[in-house]
Amino acid sequence: MPKPGIFCLEGEWSRDLRERNSVLPLLELLERLKVADYIHRDVATSNEFWYYLKRWEQKGYASYRILYLASHGESGLLELGKDRVTMAELAEQMQGRAAGRVIYFGSCLSLAQYDEELLAFVKATGAKAVVGYSRAIPWLESASFELLLLERMLRNSRSDAFFNHLVRDHGAFAASLGLVVATKTRVFDA
To answer: Which Pfam families match (predicted)?
Structure first.
Protein backbone atom coordinates (compact mmCIF):
# COMPACT_ATOMS: atom_id res chain seq x y z
CA MET A 1 0.00 0.00 0.00
CA PRO A 2 1.48 3.37 -0.97
CA LYS A 3 2.20 6.02 1.63
CA PRO A 4 -0.29 8.88 1.72
CA GLY A 5 0.68 11.79 -0.43
CA ILE A 6 0.90 15.57 -0.38
CA PHE A 7 0.36 17.48 -3.63
CA CYS A 8 1.97 20.90 -3.22
CA LEU A 9 1.51 23.93 -5.43
CA GLU A 10 3.91 26.66 -4.35
CA GLY A 11 3.70 30.31 -5.39
CA GLU A 12 6.60 32.75 -5.56
CA TRP A 13 7.68 34.11 -2.19
CA SER A 14 9.76 36.99 -3.57
CA ARG A 15 10.19 38.97 -6.77
CA ASP A 16 13.95 38.67 -6.22
CA LEU A 17 14.94 35.49 -8.07
CA ARG A 18 17.97 35.05 -5.79
CA GLU A 19 15.66 34.33 -2.85
CA ARG A 20 15.42 30.61 -2.15
CA ASN A 21 12.49 30.33 0.27
CA SER A 22 10.55 27.16 -0.35
CA VAL A 23 8.49 24.55 1.48
CA LEU A 24 10.27 21.85 -0.53
CA PRO A 25 12.69 20.93 2.31
CA LEU A 26 9.67 20.21 4.57
CA LEU A 27 8.25 17.83 2.00
CA GLU A 28 11.63 16.18 1.50
CA LEU A 29 11.96 15.65 5.25
CA LEU A 30 8.51 14.06 5.50
CA GLU A 31 9.41 11.75 2.61
CA ARG A 32 12.78 10.79 4.13
CA LEU A 33 11.05 10.00 7.42
CA LYS A 34 8.66 7.76 5.44
CA VAL A 35 5.66 9.81 6.53
CA ALA A 36 4.44 10.76 3.04
CA ASP A 37 5.18 10.88 -0.64
CA TYR A 38 4.91 14.25 -2.32
CA ILE A 39 4.56 16.06 -5.60
CA HIS A 40 5.77 19.66 -5.69
CA ARG A 41 5.22 22.20 -8.46
CA ASP A 42 6.05 25.91 -8.62
CA VAL A 43 3.14 28.05 -9.81
CA ALA A 44 3.60 31.78 -10.40
CA THR A 45 0.63 32.24 -12.73
CA SER A 46 -3.02 31.28 -12.54
CA ASN A 47 -2.64 29.20 -15.73
CA GLU A 48 0.03 27.07 -14.06
CA PHE A 49 -2.08 26.82 -10.92
CA TRP A 50 -5.22 25.64 -12.75
CA TYR A 51 -3.22 23.22 -14.90
CA TYR A 52 -1.71 21.42 -11.91
CA LEU A 53 -4.93 21.56 -9.91
CA LYS A 54 -6.65 19.63 -12.73
CA ARG A 55 -3.84 17.08 -12.58
CA TRP A 56 -4.35 16.62 -8.82
CA GLU A 57 -8.03 15.87 -9.47
CA GLN A 58 -7.15 12.93 -11.74
CA LYS A 59 -7.70 9.39 -10.48
CA GLY A 60 -3.98 8.56 -10.69
CA TYR A 61 -3.28 11.04 -7.87
CA ALA A 62 -6.02 9.85 -5.50
CA SER A 63 -3.47 8.86 -2.83
CA TYR A 64 -2.29 12.50 -2.67
CA ARG A 65 -5.11 13.42 -0.36
CA ILE A 66 -3.63 16.69 0.91
CA LEU A 67 -3.55 19.63 -1.46
CA TYR A 68 -0.93 21.96 0.02
CA LEU A 69 -1.22 25.50 -1.36
CA ALA A 70 1.93 27.31 -0.26
CA SER A 71 2.04 31.01 -1.09
CA HIS A 72 1.48 34.49 0.19
CA GLY A 73 -2.14 35.14 1.03
CA GLU A 74 -4.79 37.55 2.12
CA SER A 75 -8.30 36.95 3.38
CA GLY A 76 -9.94 34.60 0.91
CA LEU A 77 -7.13 34.48 -1.63
CA LEU A 78 -3.70 33.21 -2.64
CA GLU A 79 -0.99 35.39 -4.17
CA LEU A 80 0.97 33.18 -6.56
CA GLY A 81 3.46 35.79 -7.75
CA LYS A 82 2.17 37.31 -10.96
CA ASP A 83 -1.47 36.33 -10.36
CA ARG A 84 -3.99 35.87 -7.57
CA VAL A 85 -6.53 33.10 -7.07
CA THR A 86 -9.55 33.63 -4.86
CA MET A 87 -11.16 30.92 -2.80
CA ALA A 88 -14.41 31.65 -4.67
CA GLU A 89 -12.68 30.87 -7.98
CA LEU A 90 -11.17 27.75 -6.47
CA ALA A 91 -14.55 26.53 -5.20
CA GLU A 92 -16.14 27.19 -8.59
CA GLN A 93 -13.41 25.32 -10.47
CA MET A 94 -13.38 22.31 -8.13
CA GLN A 95 -17.15 21.70 -7.93
CA GLY A 96 -17.03 18.79 -5.48
CA ARG A 97 -13.89 17.15 -6.88
CA ALA A 98 -11.97 17.31 -3.57
CA ALA A 99 -14.16 14.66 -1.92
CA GLY A 100 -12.38 12.89 0.95
CA ARG A 101 -9.35 15.15 0.65
CA VAL A 102 -7.93 18.07 2.65
CA ILE A 103 -7.09 21.47 1.20
CA TYR A 104 -4.33 23.12 3.22
CA PHE A 105 -3.65 26.83 2.74
CA GLY A 106 -0.04 27.32 3.85
CA SER A 107 -0.42 31.08 3.58
CA CYS A 108 -1.00 34.10 5.75
CA LEU A 109 -4.58 35.17 6.39
CA SER A 110 -6.30 33.04 3.70
CA LEU A 111 -8.77 31.66 6.23
CA ALA A 112 -9.43 35.01 7.95
CA GLN A 113 -13.07 34.82 6.92
CA TYR A 114 -16.53 34.35 8.39
CA ASP A 115 -17.37 30.79 9.41
CA GLU A 116 -20.23 30.74 6.86
CA GLU A 117 -17.80 31.47 4.02
CA LEU A 118 -15.47 28.68 5.10
CA LEU A 119 -18.34 26.18 5.48
CA ALA A 120 -19.64 27.14 2.02
CA PHE A 121 -16.14 26.63 0.54
CA VAL A 122 -15.86 23.16 2.08
CA LYS A 123 -19.28 22.18 0.79
CA ALA A 124 -18.62 23.58 -2.71
CA THR A 125 -15.28 21.76 -3.10
CA GLY A 126 -16.46 18.57 -1.41
CA ALA A 127 -13.30 18.59 0.72
CA LYS A 128 -13.17 16.64 3.94
CA ALA A 129 -11.59 19.72 5.51
CA VAL A 130 -9.97 23.05 4.75
CA VAL A 131 -7.01 23.99 6.94
CA GLY A 132 -5.05 27.22 7.18
CA TYR A 133 -4.36 30.38 9.10
CA SER A 134 -6.34 33.47 10.04
CA ARG A 135 -3.24 35.52 10.91
CA ALA A 136 0.03 36.65 9.37
CA ILE A 137 2.45 33.82 10.05
CA PRO A 138 6.24 34.11 10.42
CA TRP A 139 8.18 31.87 8.04
CA LEU A 140 10.28 29.85 10.51
CA GLU A 141 7.50 29.34 13.05
CA SER A 142 5.02 28.27 10.40
CA ALA A 143 7.53 25.90 8.78
CA SER A 144 8.18 24.09 12.04
CA PHE A 145 4.45 23.93 12.82
CA GLU A 146 3.67 22.65 9.33
CA LEU A 147 5.78 19.54 9.93
CA LEU A 148 3.59 18.71 12.92
CA LEU A 149 0.40 19.69 11.12
CA LEU A 150 1.04 17.71 7.94
CA GLU A 151 2.07 14.62 9.87
CA ARG A 152 -1.11 14.79 11.99
CA MET A 153 -3.32 15.36 8.96
CA LEU A 154 -1.83 12.30 7.26
CA ARG A 155 -2.12 10.11 10.35
CA ASN A 156 -5.66 10.97 11.47
CA SER A 157 -8.62 10.21 9.26
CA ARG A 158 -10.94 12.61 11.10
CA SER A 159 -10.39 16.37 10.80
CA ASP A 160 -11.59 17.08 14.32
CA ALA A 161 -9.16 14.46 15.66
CA PHE A 162 -6.03 16.01 14.18
CA PHE A 163 -7.21 19.47 15.22
CA ASN A 164 -7.88 18.32 18.81
CA HIS A 165 -4.51 16.53 19.02
CA LEU A 166 -2.65 19.59 17.75
CA VAL A 167 -4.44 21.90 20.15
CA ARG A 168 -3.89 19.49 23.04
CA ASP A 169 -0.17 19.03 22.31
CA HIS A 170 0.71 22.41 20.78
CA GLY A 171 -2.17 24.72 21.67
CA ALA A 172 -0.21 27.90 22.23
CA PHE A 173 1.69 27.34 18.99
CA ALA A 174 -1.53 26.70 17.02
CA ALA A 175 -3.23 29.73 18.56
CA SER A 176 -0.29 32.05 17.87
CA LEU A 177 -0.54 31.19 14.17
CA GLY A 178 -4.34 31.40 14.08
CA LEU A 179 -4.88 27.80 12.97
CA VAL A 180 -8.34 27.21 11.48
CA VAL A 181 -9.88 23.89 10.42
CA ALA A 182 -13.22 23.94 8.61
CA THR A 183 -15.27 20.81 7.92
CA LYS A 184 -18.68 20.49 6.27
CA THR A 185 -20.42 21.14 9.59
CA ARG A 186 -18.09 23.12 11.84
CA VAL A 187 -15.20 25.59 11.99
CA PHE A 188 -12.52 24.92 14.60
CA ASP A 189 -10.37 27.89 15.60
CA ALA A 190 -7.31 27.50 17.79
So the answer is: DUF6642 (PF20347)
Q: For 126-158, what is each residue's pLDDT tens digit? A: 999 999 999 999 999 999 999 999 999 998 778
Strand order in the sheet with 5-10: 37-42, 5-10, 66-70, 102-106, 129-133, 179-182, 187-189
Domains in the chain, ordered, with CATH? 5-189 (3.40.50.1460)
Name the residue among 122, 73, 71, 132 with its Cα closest to residue 101: 122
Task: Kindly give the pairing relationship between strand 72-74 and strand 66-70.
Answer: unpaired
Burial class (CB in 10 A: 0-12, 13-18, 19+), 145: buried
pLDDT (tens digit per residue) in 31-61 = 999 999 999 999 999 999 999 999 999 999 9
